[in-house]
Amino acid sequence: MKTSVRKQKLQHLYWRAGFGIPFRPDQANDGIKKAVRDLLDRSSQAVPLQVSLPHTESVLSADMQNADMRQLRQRERNKGFVLLNNAWLQQMATSEAQLREKLTLFWHGHFACRLREPRFALQQHNILREHALGKFPDLLLAISKDPGMLQFLNNQQNRKQRPNENFARELLELFTLGRGHYTEQDIKEAARAFTGWSYNPQGEFVFRARQHDRGKKTFMGKQGNFGGEEILQMIVENPRTAEFLTTKLYAFFVSDVPNPERIQSLSSYFYETGYDIPKLLEKIFTAKWFYEPDVVGSKIKSPIELLAGLQRQFDVTYADGRSPLVLQRALGQELFRPPNVSGWAGGRNWIDSSTLAFRLRIGPALLQDAALEVNLKPDDDTEPTAPRKRRQDGLRIVRAKADLNGLHQQLHKVKDQDLIHKLSQKLLQVPLRPETAALLSQHIPAGVAHADKVTLLTLRLLSLPEYQLC
User: InterPro entries, alphabetically (predicted)?
Assistant: First the structure.
């Protein structure tokens, strides 16, 4: 395989299985199978996200009014979510365990929860992180017992003789089988099986035996005195669950356009391996079709992929912790704040006329240390700053610094006439059209130093629609 072709395939792999390849002089040039194994090996250990969250109760005083207490609690919660958001985005950009970060992002959208308490959000995040590259039945059981999930879907209100069906319904419709592959009666019987599943104030799972319905239940054609664990086991024994999950994983890692033949083959393999997530991904990433033109560069980067990729490749640092959240809100994907239990729609939904124009400005602005003006919608303008610092018009200013030294070092021996070609190969996942390349090159002023040419061309390539693809 030619070196340039191999590099393009590796770049494709690292954008799909992670957040791009940082620009380093000693960049690896491995074969695909070795690179996939390396990705899996580096992500084999689950390291929890460590965030020191504010403790609201310690700053509350006895003479505070209820309104003051509520306002302070909310401000502290907001601070906590800023810390969580910044910490995870930093992990995505810098961690060597790229595949675990990417899988955690996938499961974050799959088991989408919009939680009020940062400590519950961190606990849930670390459950997803721990099981992201394990076996799905273990992840399903762990997330079903997660206090954040139980709270978000009201299962603490699910008691015998007064069942709450929220968790059971989303479990079947969104997390495992998919709509149309269960009955309303299955939901009712599953809800009865999960009665008594709750948590205590310390954020620990608690089974409240007195609230559990011990009567006979009929679920998916089987009868028995089922508890929640038995329901989960029957769900994963159904091959439809493997197909549903594989379809979503295919859309996330491969293409928004389903390929029934590939998905059927992959889901059968997934089921046969006992839902082994690393084995499924290895099969995808080593498949010949994964590197075909219809797959490479066919996906629109999600806002998080765009921002984490810029930060990873250009060592972007923000002037304050609020700035990444402002960008995420403006682009339509904020970590720990999914729009609903279905998660983010993704695909072409990431782009409309206003978000595309804004996307094209982000890269050049961040790399030039320029002030980027962002207008937030009024209902999105909740941030952990004192009221006097808030602007009523929704305008926010984002500032950041970037480092292009790694890119300059990689290209310092490249001849001027080859710069646009080499740069486009490093920055874009689709071939640059000759007329676009010619136009970009024509606008480089005469007599500009080599390093400045690299910088100018980089800024212009980042402002192209092609940079939005991965």
Answer: DUF1800 (IPR014917)
